[in-house]
Amino acid sequence: MSQERFLALDLGAESGRGVVGTLSEANHLTLGEVHRFPNGPIRMGDSLHWDLPRLVAECRIAIGKASEGGRLRALGVDTWGVDFGLLGPGGELVGLPFHYRDPRTQGQIEKVFARVPQEEVFASTGIQTMPINTLFQLAALRERSPRVLEAARTLLFMPDLLHYYLTGRAESEYTIASTSQMLNATTRTWATDLLKSLDLPADILPAVLPAGAGYGTLTPTEADLTGAGAVPVIAPGGHDTACAVAAVPAEGSGWAYLSSGTWSLLGVEVPRPILTPEAAAANVTNEGGVGGTIRLLKNIAGLWLVQECRRAYARLGSERTYEQLTRLAAEAPALSHIVDPDHPSLMAPSDMPRAIRELCLQNGQLPPEGVGATIRCCLDSLGLKYRAVLETLERLTGQAIHTLHIVGGGTQNRLLNQIAADATGRHVLAGPIEATATGSVLLQAMAQGRIGSLGELRAIVRASFPVEAYTPDPLARAQWDDAYQAAIASGRLSGA
Q: CA-based angle 348:371:338, to the nearest 5?
C-alpha cells in the first residue's frame, strides 16, 4: 500500500489552517501545514459575527494547495462548538453566523430555566450550562429577531456549514451537534420535547450523522475551483475537541485529557453519559466523542486569558510574543494572585489585565503589578482550576486519575505544563501539539477502512509523535496544596 494523503481543515477561534497528513504503509503519520489564515470575530454594529464567506474561500485555497502535492484520499472540516448558521428555503445563508461571545445571550440562561428547570435540561442533554451554548443563542434569536428564525429552514453548525458549501449536503455530525445543549445525551437524537417547551423550532435541525460519516465528494464547482477533483469529504469529528481527544496517545485506564488552547477542555472518556444530580451540580458536560464514547469534561477559559492580556498590551504599544510573556511569568513569584478563570467578569472584558486586577481587589487580594505577575496569575489560576476539575471527575466516575495528557497548541507553554503537574500532583505527558489535525486525519483514515479501531489510531499517534513528561516537584507540593485549599475556602476558586 502506498502512502495516502488526507487533508484536515482545522478552524479555531484565532486561526485556521489546512494540514496534510501522510500515512505510510508502516502506519507512520507525518503532517505538513499547507495553508494558515487568521480567524476571529468581525464587529457589525453592536454584534459579533464570523466572516463565513472568507472562511469558505480560505478552505478552498487550502484544498487547492494540498492538491498540488498529489491526490487526496479524503478531506474533512472541524471547528469550535456551539456556533451555527441558518439557511433559507433556497439554501441561501440567512445572515452571518454570530460569534459565541456576542452579548445577545445575556440573561437568556435565567429566561430559559424559568420555562424549563435547569435540572431537566441537564437530565436531557447532559451539557454544561454556559451562555455561549446554542440553546441560549437560539432563544436570544427567537426573542430579538423572530423573523430571521421564521425565514430559516435549516440550522447548521460551523463545520456542517463548511461541509455544506463543499458538498451541497446539509446534515449535522454527532460530536458538533452534542455541544449545542439541544441533543438528547442518551438517545443521541434532537431533544424535541425540550425545544417544544421553549418554543424553539426543531424542524430546522438536520439529520445527525455519526463521526466518520461520508458527505459524498466535492461538488463539481468546488472540484473545479480547487483543482482537487472529486475528493471524498468526511466529517471526521466536526468538533475540534473530539478530534483532539481521539489523538490522545493514551493506553489503559486512569488518565484524563486536557486539550489546551484558547479553551482548556479537561475531561475523561466514559462509555455513557453521567446525568446524576451530582454531575448537574458540578456543571460538567457530556459531549459526544468518537468510537461510541462520551467526553465527560469541563470547559475552562484556558489561554484566552493570556491571549486577551497580550492584545491589551499590544493596544498600548507593547507588542510581545507568547514566549516573551511566558518568560516574564516564569520570573514572577508563584501563587501570589489567584482568580477563577471562569469568573463572568473574565468572559469578554474590553481590558483583560484591568479585569484581573479588579477581580483580585474584589476578592481581597492585592492586584498583580506588571506584565509578568499578571500572566503568572493567569497560569497559576489555570493550574489550580485543573486540580479542582480533576477531583470532580474522580468523584463523579469513582475512578482515580494518575496521568494527565495535554494535547494541542497549549503544550508549547512548558511553564503551564509544569504548573499543571505541580498544581494537580499528577504525572503530565504533553503532546502531540497538532492533536486536532492528527485526530482529523486519522479519523478520516478510519472511515476509509485504513485503521480498524480507536485503540489502533492511538497506537499510530504514539509511534508517530514524541511526548514530553512533567513530574510534580515534591518540594513545591505543600505550597500548591496550601494555595489550593485557601483559594477554595475563600471562594476565589470554584470547586468545579
A: 65
